[in-house]
Amino acid sequence: MSTFPYRLVATDLDGTLLRADESVSARTRDALTAATEAGAAHIVVTGRAVPWTRHILDDLGYEGIAVCGQGAQVYHAGEHRLLTSLTLDRQLAGLALSKIEAEVGPLALAASRDGLEGEVLVGPGYRTQEGPLPYVPYEDPAEIWSAPLTKLYVQHPTLSDDELTRIARETVGGLVDVVMAGPGIVEIVPLGLSKATGLSLAARRLGVKAAETIAFGDMPNDIPMFGWAARGVAMANAHEELKAVADEVTASNEKDGIAVVLERLLGA
Fold first, then answer.
1. Cross-strand pairs, 260
2. What is the mean pLDDT of the chain?
3. What angle do CA 18, 20, 21 make, to 5 degrees?
4. pLDDT tens for residues 206-221?
5. Residue among 246, 216, 249, 215 nearest 229 (CA)
C-alpha cells in the first residue's frame, strides 16, 4: 500500500458523505478507516448546526472534531462539547433581512439558535425537508430574535435558490454573508464566516496545514473550503459552481465518490 499523501480528509455531510437516506455506505466507512489508519485525520465539515449533526456523528462512531453551522461551531464529538461558537449579530441580520425583502418581497424564515441544544425555529410558509431533523414551529416573528442565533434560513415563493442567493448577496453583501447550502437552503450567516474559517481553526487544533488537506463537497458553500485545502473534490451530483473550482470530480454520493478517490490514493 502506498503512503497516503494527506494528513487531513475533510468531508461535507449532505450530498457528499451521506446518501439520500442519511446513511454512510460500508465501502466509504472502510475507505475512511483505511485513510485514518494511514495517518490522516477525518473531519466532518457541515452546514448543519450541532443539534442536527450530533446523531449522525454518534452513529458513525465519530469521536473527533467536527465543523458545524457553516464554520460557526467547532464541536468535539467524543466529548459532546462546543469548542468554539460564533453567533449572528441579530441587529445586522434584521437589517439585512429588511433590505432583501425590500428587493424581492416577503420571505419565509427559519432560524438556528446557538448552543449544543439550539432549536431550529420554522416560520409560516417555510418548506421543511422530510426526515428526522427536529424543529419548532413559530407564529410570532419576535420569537426569532429572542435568543442568540447561528444563522437565518430564507426562502422565496417563486425565486430559485440561485436567484435568491445572487440578489441577496448583491443587496446585503457588506452586512452579512449569504450561502446556498442545499436545495431550498439559502442561509444568512455572519460576515466573513465560511466552512474554511471553521476548518482552519479545527486543523490548527490538530496540527495540520491546508497544504496537507483534501476536501470533498457538493454545494457552493463548499467553495471556500476548496480554496483553503490543497485539493478539492466535487461529487458528480455537485452544483456546477463547485465543479467549476474543483480539482477533480468523483462519483456521486450514492456511488461512493469519496471511497473512489481515497482508495485510489491509498493504492487499494
1. none
2. 94
3. 90
4. 999 999 999 999 999 9
5. 215
Residues 6+ apart with CB under 8 A from 142: none
- Nearest to 45, CA basis, from 53, 55, 35: 53
Give the pLDDT mean for 243-264.
Answer: 98
3-class secondary structure, 108: strand
- What does the block give as the cell for 159? 425565486
Residue type, 74: V
Number of other residues whose CB lies within 10 A of the CB of residue 134: 10
Burial class of residue 125 in the structure, from the number of CB atoms within 10 Å of its CB (0-12 exposed, 13-18 middle, 19+ buried): exposed
Query: Containing H/E element for 75?
Result: strand 73-76
For residues 28 and 36, the answer to whether their CB atoms sit within 8 Å is no
Residue 186 backbone dihedrals phi, psi, to 5 degrees: -115, 125
Instruction: Give Cα separations from 50 to 42, 54, 120, 206 (angstroms).
Output: 17, 6, 11, 20
pLDDT of 1 strictly over 50: no
Give CA–CA dist 42/35, Å, rounded: 8
